[in-house]
Amino acid sequence: MTAPAQTKPATRVSAWRPPLLRSLPLRLSVIAICFLWTLPTLGLLVTSVRDPILIAKSGWWTSLLSPFNPPDQWTLSNYQTVIASDGMGNAFINSLIVTVPSTVIPITIAAFAAYAFAWVPFRGRGILFTIVVGLLVVPIQMSLIPILQIYSAGNLYGTFLGIWLAHTGFGLPLAIFLLYNFMSQLPRDLFESAAIDGATHLQVFIRIVLPLSVPALGAFAIFQFLWVWNDLLVALVFLGPGAEVRVLPTALYQLIGSRGGSWHLLTAGAFITMVVPLLVFLVLQRAFVRGILAGSVKS
Amino acid sequence: MAAARTERPGPSRFVLPIAGLIGLGICLAGILVLYDPQGGQNILASIYDALGNGAGASELRNGSGDQVVAKILLALIALLVGVGGIWLLYLGVGSLVSVLQPTWRDRILPWVFVGPALALLAVFLVYPAAGTILRAFQDNEGQFTLSNFAVMTDPEFLLILRNNALWLVVGTAGSVLLGLVIAGLFDRVRRESLAKTFVFLPLAISLVGASVIWGFMYAWQPAGRPQIGLLNAIVVQFGGTPVPWLTTSPINVFAEIMILVWLQTGFAMVVLSAAIKGVGAEIIEAARLDGATERQLFFKVIVPMIRGSIITVATTIAIVTLKIFDIVYVTTGGRFKDDVVGVRMFHEIFQFFNDGRGAALATLLFLAVLPVMYINLSNFRRQQRQG
């Protein structure tokens, strides 16, 4: 395991990566880790398209080992059942309706606030932003009872308007924090020359800051989209289990309660809840990683 | 830059205020539609009426018909009002304020920008947090009491605390250690980003979905029956008796923690991998010349250098473990000696209708994250002073 005495490392990578042949155990262990990490999801996916009778009789891996025997073991009927009779189709639409405004509205509000916190001096700015940073870690559990009382009094329980507002409020601290981190790093000259040209803050924000902040806005959008789409607690408390409004996580939770041992339905239902986040994630992975790094490696 | 400098010929000075007024009217109407539980259906029914489709309209009003279209219409109105209304508000008030004397303008304009955000934060986080803390010290009649906290002396509650402690320690340490080792290993192979995708992917999956995935991994059948859960199939293959992973205490706590570790390792890996890449090649070379083995290099040189990132990742995951709700609620509901504060609080409020105890448990969670809040704030202050 001793290091090769390279005289001149051209790049950091060549200093670090061992030569091809000796790296075989390393590469095998990397492949093993990737395999192990994917195995649970693979089991879910395979089971969701297997014949329900077979699922109860043998492990999902047997179908992978002999995919053509019996020949009729693959089916999409599990998906048909959960989408139609278990209401996952309706829940899917509800999830879209909840998630899109809950993502777009907080970004808009946070962008204005982050700009002011970063570049517009005003009295109390430091203290107010400190409060925003403090709110980053306050558990949502602290908000449940009082907000629920407000919602019951104002007939907002079980409405889309109610959950949009709730997700907007809960998402704002992180949104303001991430956007502030980004906007405050923009070069000062930009703002000075704009001020000399007589641009107002509104003009500077719309014509300069917003276009430059697209990476940060996108990163937060992915964050918030995944968070809202995958959220169970807020949806359960403020939207409730009614079939008209319930979202995918609620529907999947109820499916577990009503169809406990029916793995053919649970796996298909679970996969329906995962499709959109997985697609968003695979397509926009780099922006997502950027967002994570901006949010956590500030030291 | 050039865009800010160009003077566009402005529209007539009457057009903007009139457009603003019309927009404001539309927004108010939109809010009314959103507030009405049947708003989407009603407005679509009106549209159908106007188009001469009376049958479709009455179907909608009776709760059948094109419900999906009505919902999507509602969401579009929400986007229009939410985003359009906010822009209108900012632009309208912003240009109104711009007319004022410069001193007043500079005093008021910032509040136009931060006002809506501060109002929402006050309503959805600050006021409720204060209300919850107060409620924790009140009985149902509003009198001061400490009895809500008395629940915390039950033997049952000590079990909950034990479980939360296990989540905090095992969940955080597991995710960070695995993430660190995987980041170190993956950093040294070709196709690194492809390999990272595999470990990172579960982060996109909801905790409910992950609970189903792992519930299937943990599936249990009595001995002698075919095991369809992968883990028990392996146990039986090696001659063991199948283990009911999710109903045996304390194994079930670890089985549930495993689900979170599977999700959070990807997060730890991504952040730590970026930190490892920040360690300069000269340092690695120097350690090698000094005769360090690869393992020493990683644990004695690189790990200490990325300590800051490790602490950040650990605190982030620690907060997630403290607040844990979904996994326990979905897999067992906390019925098999695996209850945690988050789930118990939910049951106190929605099953036992005991808001006071629920508030006391929420306050406990809040106290648990206070040290992290303190660390965040002092980090931020230091940054401000340096910046």
Task: Present the secondary structure layout.
The complex is a heterodimer of chains A (299) and B (387).
Chain A: H1 12-16, H2 24-48, H3 52-57, H4 60-65, H5 77-84, H6 88-119, H7 125-135, H8 144-153, H9 160-183, H10 188-196, H11 201-212, H12 214-230, H13 233-239, H14 248-258, H15 263-283, H16 285-296
Helix pairs in contact in A: 2-15, 5-15, 6-9, 6-12, 6-14, 9-12, 9-13, 12-15, 12-16, 14-15
Chain B: H1 2-5, H2 15-35, H3 39-50, H4 54-61, H5 67-98, H6 102-136, H7 147-150, H8 155-186, H9 192-200, H10 207-217, H11 230-237, H12 251-277, H13 281-289, H14 294-305, H15 307-322, H16 326-331, H17 341-350, H18 355-386
Helix pairs in contact in B: 2-3, 2-5, 3-4, 3-5, 5-6, 6-18, 8-12, 8-15, 9-12, 10-12, 12-15, 13-14, 17-18
Would you mind describing this structure in some detail?
- The complex is a heterodimer of chains A (299) and B (387).
- Chain A has 299 residues and is mainly α.
- Residues 1-11 of chain A have low confidence and may be disordered.
- In chain A, helix 14 packs antiparallel against helix 15 (263-283).
- Chain A contains 16 helices and no strands.
- Chain A folds into two domains: 28-63, no CATH class; 83-296, MetI-like (MetI-like fold, Orthogonal Bundle), CATH 1.10.3720.
- Chain B is mainly α.
- Chain B has two domains: 13-136, no CATH class; 150-386, MetI-like fold (Orthogonal Bundle), CATH 1.10.3720.10.
- Chain B contains 18 helices and no strands.
- Chain B has helices at residues 2-5, 15-35, 39-50, 54-61, 67-98, 102-136, 147-150, 155-186, 192-200, 207-217, 230-237, 251-277, 281-289, 294-305, 307-322, 326-331, 341-350, 355-386.
- The radius of gyration of chain B is 29 Å and the shape is globular.
- At the A-B interface, helix 1, helix 2, helix 3, helix 6 and helix 7 of A face helix 1, helix 5, helix 6, helix 8 and helix 9 of B.
